[in-house]
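Q: Convert this sequence to structure tokens.
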Amino acid sequence: MRTKLRYFASLLFCLIFASSMQAQQHTLLLWPEQIPNEKESKLKEESEYTDTQRIKNVRNPSIEVYLPSHGNATGQAVLICPGGGYGILAYDKEGTDFAKWLNGYGIAGIVLKYRLPEDDSNLTPHLSPLMDAKQGITLIRTHAQAWNIDPNQVGIMGFSAGGHLASTLGTHFDKATRPDFMALIYPVITMQKNYTHMGSRTNLLGEMPDAALIQEYSNEQQVSAETPPTFLVHSQDDTAVPVENSLQMYQALLQHQIPTEMHLYPTGGHGYGFARQHPHLSSWTDRLIEWLQQL
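A:
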């Protein structure tokens, strides 16, 4: 009898725990009514699983919200921009996996499923990702009290092309959408041909962008005294997105006296996420948490 009672008590606990965990995760559409900069299209969102969940043709941009338990919450929140060359989103490897991980440190992790700048469903393709990032920050601050978040501790984090989007928001914000900090992980920063990732540039700006557009989205050239504190990670042997992207951003931040921390690693390549396969590199996440805690 006691064994059965213990079994049912254990089962009840698991159900309650699962229910409470489920309540901590939910999804909100960025634009529940009219989506700005959208045109009629027959494109449908697609998702496939290989080494990561790859999402393309995003038609209904959203945020997927992961909240820590109330008692564990620090008040910080991070809007996470997965990479994918502005052609796909590496949604779990550089998105939801990190949101769940941040929860363990009391930080809200909020994944941005942003529109990709293809021509078929966007009126002006390069405008849509930044619109979505700004709206993501706005929604977080709108729900800050309900989500136990400090509206003055809302930052953005991006990987690869998602790092370009994050740094675009950090240099092209308006008063209401300025992130309080940025974490840029092996980021695309420049659109200049010498060091950019050409796939990201072509997908965002088109085959033959004019000089003004290239300069506007070369974010090392857009840093100002209002750019938020920034954390950078890059590998020196990154052949997809050269380390000069982070180096140029770091130099620009220093010139404007922005508090900045950069970690460079001799090897690791590109797109390593948590870098579990690179023991010397995997501690970058510890450095990020230390940096977030001192903010």
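Residues 54 and 90 are 5 Å apart (CA to CA).
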